[in-house]
Specification:
Four copies of one chain form a homotetramer. Chain A is α/β, with parallel strands linked by helices. Chain A has two domains: about 5-210 and about 360-405, Rossmann fold (3-Layer(aba) Sandwich); about 215-360, Phosphofructokinase domain (Rossmann fold). Chain A has twelve helices and 18 strands. Chain A has helices at about 85-100, 130, 150-160, 170-185, 215-235, 250-260, 280-290, 325-340, 355, 365-380, 400-405, 415-425; strands at about 10, 20, 35-40, 40-45, 55, 65, 70-75, 105, 125, 165-170, 195-200, 240-245, 265, 295-300, 345-350, 385, 385-390, 395-400. Chain A has a nine-stranded mixed sheet with strand order 3-5-18-17-11-10-7-8-9, with helices on both faces. A four-stranded parallel sheet of chain A has the order 13-14-12-15, sandwiched between helices. A two-stranded antiparallel sheet of chain A has the order 1-16. In chain A, helix 3 packs across helix 4 (about 170-185). The relative contact order of chain A is 0.17. At the A-B interface, helix 5 of A face helix 5 of B.
Chain lengths: ~425, ~425, ~425, ~425
């Protein structure tokens, strides 16, 4: 990720004229705006340390921009489900209400649709009873939808509804949409904060080392791999093929495979692989069956797109390029390959995506989503805008939206994760 | 189920000339061959009680046919996976070895294939270490395959391998195969016992009120329904469609739906339903979306076969008629229906079958499979043959294979289960 | 269980003058009051079949006693937690409201306390939103407490609150209390129905083959046994001692042990065992450690009461005799035994009861509790009173409260369950 | 943590004269010994960056010290159970065997006992079948014990057994023991490597941001808190008190409470709290009961030691000071407090430690333990010794054992975790 110090500067609505209500609490450690987290971890003798490549540290500010008594905040959740959405909603509400004393918190219904009164349902008022038990539920109690709305209409709506702060919980496309809304707000000279909370089950947003929901997804995916392994082992020439999430990055496929230690092939977008020939996947699969009698293949949905004649040019409502169906292709080619060679083979194909993404958050993701949500509130109350909460290894940080959406995060193939996968699968180094 | 008393008579290899080793254990309560379990439960005043319609009670016999010191037993698991298979293997082994003192227990590999030396791998010898931890694993450690083998070859193999007892763990087709093997044994005048242990995740074998693996399947399926419900609720016009196992009977679909209480439509083989028109499924779905905004549909794989132009005539290797793809049909028709009417609708289709059937048995199925396995050993050691262990409500019984495979068990639509489903879904009474 | 036909006769408030609203539903199969379920299952040649020993079958009646339009029902949950309580509350409400059209359903708070206005909080009105998601939660949303209240005060309260039907969900003591309330109602000549729903995680109520919550408890207990087994195996001379529920009957200890197959000793109230001497438990434990190096002991809380100098005479608020602490006794005696003999031994003691009983119901118990709840509503609407829903193997039945509370159900030591435990543990036949 | 650059220098056995077998694999990225991970994350303008305070980065070295063909390695697991132990054993074996080609890998039985032939059992030879499925099991298949052994005897044993590399998997005490062994080896001038893998379910070892097993423990503990919350809510004046692991640090109590969001009081060793008086815990509990009717208390086992008259001076076999029983004290004082004030209160006490620590590792811990294990092998093969694998946020590093055991890691009370707990509980700031 190449980025200049300027691209990491956080926008602010103006001077912070109010004392944080947290000042009354003795033990709170406020964070200065100047405190920054180094991007660089490692150093070789003689190396320079790039102290200007750093991210603004998240956390409570001593002085805040918005007067809690007169502030209205709204929360919107967009895109596909990810474990932890309800935890984010709940913790944003609790931090606004109980820490800052904000009295009016709105829940926008069904994603950005709910910010366009022409097609969406009106917001609901969030209160204590609404959030009481939602942290133990999967999905999002506010509903979701895909795709952006006209920023003019959205900002009209924010103005009419007297919404001062908008929390946008969602992925890549959602954050891009949040950035556009923030720009429209700025264009009009309004003093409204737009703060993003990154939600990506695929874990593919830059400056977010680990996004909430991802570890829960690994947990669920690993269970599926265990089932698939059982199926493969039970059958004569048993092959189980599991398609997992991962449009642009193979973090889920690789992570689940590394956790399970039972996968024999992991196919990810970052590693194009040949299908045919002596170096090809099919031949390697044949050899595996010969040696061990069964095989478990894990394919990210974005893997093997180079195997299709031409790229897809259609997009879904979120603006994601529609992918070719690698699961279907592999099924077909595996079937043909073994049938032609008259080798007994039983193929089980499993596509568990909806099951994986709609479960409640596990303990880790409950903690992570809570932390992110509360820091998003601190940032917004301090008047930060057009930014997103990030997580640089062990520290929560502020990331300008434009830098967060400039590109997708991908696996570094020389890194622990992929090297671990290669070691545990023994698959060819394509 | 119509059946005559004669059809419930159990075959035996001959006189039981050995004392059961269990005689040494004070607390065992032996079961007399004459002790029978009434099929009839209910009675109205004036009704006759059919005492001759009864099943031979399972359990240890005081006198046994086979001399444990010189007996070899073999276990074969066939057909699709079901939670509890490893528990059955383990408990058969332990009962043979530790209760009866049988020294040689073989594991046939990959189903009936392993009884045909031309294509199968040779049996393995089962010992204590082999079974030590398998009761906590899904699948079958012996492997499985579909389809029968030539009974002549099989009985040749049993004779050569000096196998005296063959335990056939499997469904409808497997039991039919077991019956044919038993007949070939009888034709040759051999003294070998063939005892079936019913394995049907669909719970569709007669005289087996509840088969092992079924409750675990409900447990797993219910989790999937919860995920699907979450998906449906999150989306605009959210419809989740879950295809579950159930070729001929809707027990899994109905049971999981009744457990979850969140399903709105349950489609099963026993209830043909119209798709179009005012009484049709699609119109009912539209109304549900109008009223509540989301819907959860559960379809057994054997549901709605009448909606296809003509019955399928191809069969899989197990002899099951290949079904038309009701999941695919419903997906397509639902999409078209709402697109034509311009009603926003988001469809999520989930097919979790492999995930459901390959998990380890839950506590209940661990108990049930253990009971069935040990009773199968008692029956076999007593020289019973051409029979299967049944479970008539709370009692384990012996069922002649021919009666067990004469037809499939289906849901009684006036019974608790289906009535409960109708009440909890509120779906039309088709 | 000795019982006379007269003791199985169900009381009724009077003639059923209303048609059931279910009559409008074509597929319902009404149950006649005369339809009875035989208690006897088995028969030997020459045996008499006791057709008069039978239980009234539960289910919807064609004619009902209460006019749904003017009827108020109330639900109370008492005693210790059991998985499924919220499912019972929800299904009673839904059946009353949606099947029968009853408009007013009250939730009594914190058990029988809530029926005594002097000490309890007033009832809440149950509505659709209240029950919407409670079936996925453990515990009871109505709260609970132990012990009865003065029946005069209770019936005063029922009269003042115009409660026509009272559903009492609870164990032995709760049902006894329900019977006393029903008698007080009858004494006053009131037309109020009292219907019990048996809740016993220990599974020890007569005429209830399987009570809701019990299988979930086995599931959870089995997980604990697996953890305990892991602890025992890891340590030098590792002994894990797990105390499980089971005051009067060992169903949980035996069932969990049978499911786990890893327990080596199961101590239950039904089987007094010697501690010392060559036939004693401690010597058997020593031998087990010698042979295998580790041991897993499961003790029901009511086991080994004979080992204490004299019976306890104090009772808890529910009227249960307070038990001596067998867990503590065993810990101490095991420690002393091995210390005296200088044998290395590491003891881990686990008491998981609260964790086991407060989880949500599993799929099976969700189904079972739903069935019981809906049948309780059928019975109550038909004017049955002073009775409890029973479950005689596969059939739901009506049981007079006095017969249900006459004694506790215990394990039959010659039956499948205990015999299975003896076989899987290999423990001495005390 | 104060530490000097010198204290972070890693010892090495000598020159690396062999090429790593990994050189043959194109994609591997070797790590230079000079590559270091900065300890410092954050910087304020004007702050110095301490580049000399850094840790040697872990990972495969291009040149290695030991010749795989002639090297023998041994693995020992010590102390209490933690999820992931079997994963560590398995991954160490696989990395040694398959990546490096080491042929002889021994498993030391039952902790350091197994290194003292006078009392321990001899090592077992680890092979592929032994480790095949152990990654899905809790506990340690090698067994464990507490306490060190005489280093003279241990090094004699290593010499006799021709063990070149010893992997010591364990906590604080185990690592201290490993350091002493390494010193004895050095004293004798032997060329044997001792490499530690930190195992601390409490997560209290310095330079290990997150230890394997800890997140699984949070997951399990959170389930227990959910059950406890259910118990508390069900009862009149319901108070649930859960004692969790955490001798010196409150990471488990705080993490589980933060995940659950249902705890009202979290008591940890880092925060002494008064019991009595207006600022005391008991009064705060009374107020909570008044306001909300129920309360959930989470206490780390090392909390509140200041409440006992004098410190304990006895130690367990691992050298940990025996703690006073805070669970027992709180139970008693809570009971007395409410009884004296005549306030209805029901207390449920839960101590789930053994259940939490003996489950299999979750996906995250499977990954983490695999990474640590493989890096331990890289370090050992490169001749590093008297060191432990660390994890500094997102990077695996080498830590000298003396620095790792110099003190225990504790929660920073101004940090995210504890601040999050204060916010989610609303408890007093003691």
């Amino acid at each position: 990720m190449r980025v200049s110090p300027a691209e990491l500067r956080i926008e602010s609505l103006g001077d912070c004229e109010h004392n944080s209500p947290l000042s009354a609490t003795s033990s709170v450690q406020f964070v200065e705006d100047e405190r920054r987290v180094l991007i660089q971890h490692e150093v070789l003798p003689g190396d320079e340390i790039h102290r200007d490549l750093s991210l603004e540290k998240a956390g409570p500010r001593r002085r805040i921009f918005f007067d809690p008594n007169t502030t209205t905040a709204a929360i919107v959740t967009c895109g596909g489900l990810s474990p932890g959405l309800n935890n984010v909603i709940r913790s944003i509400y609790l931090e606004l209400r109980h820490t800052y004393g904000v009295r009016r918190v709105l829940g926008i219904q069904h994603g950005y649709q709910g910010l366009n009164p022409a097609i969406g349902e009106p917001p609901i008022e969030i209160h204590g009873e609404f959030v009481e038990n939602i942290h133990h539920l999967g999905g999002t109690t506010l509903g979701t939808s895909r795709g952006p709305q006209d920023p003019t209409l959205v900002v009209d709506f924010l103005a009419q509804s007297e919404i001062d702060i908008l929390f946008c919980v969602g992925g890549d496309g959602t954050q891009r949409g949040a950035g556009i809304i923030a720009q429209e707000i700025e264009r009009r000279g309004l003093l409204k904060s737009v703060v993003g909370v990154p939600k990506t089950i695929d874990n593919d947003i830059p400056f977010v080392s680990l996004s909430f929901g991802h570890i829960t997804a690994l947990e669920e995916a690993e269970k599926v791999l265990r089932a698939a392994h059982t199926e493969a082992r039970g059958a004569v020439g048993g092959v189980a093929l599991v398609k997992l999430m991962g449009r642009d990055a193979g973090f889920i496929a690789a992570g689940a495979a590394l956790a399970s230690q039972d996968a024999n092939f992991v196919l990810v977008p970052e590693v194009p692989f040949p299908l045919e020939g002596e170096d090809g996947f099919l031949y390697a699969l044949e050899k595996r069956l010969q040696d061990r009698g069964h095989a478990l293949i894990v394919a990210a949905e974005g893997a093997g797109q180079h195997l299709f004649p031409q790229p897809r040019d259609r997009q879904d409502a979120s603006g994601n390029t529609l992918l070719h169906d690698i699961g279907g292709l592999l099924r077909e080619r595996i079937m043909i390959y073994f049938r032609e060679r008259n080798i007994p083979m039983t193929l089980k194909y499993i596509d568990p995506s909806y099951i994986i993404r709609s479960v409640p958050a596990n303990a880790w993701d409950q903690i992570l989503s809570n932390h992110m949500a509360r820091r998003a509130v601190h940032a917004a109350m301090a008047g930060k805008t057009n930014m997103m909460i990030g997580y640089w290894d062990s520290e929560f940080v502020h990331v300008p939206i434009c830098s967060a959406v400039a590109q997708k995060k991908k696996m570094d193939l020389s890194d622990d994760l992929w090297q671990g996968v290669l070691r545990s699968t023994g698959q060819p180094h394509w």
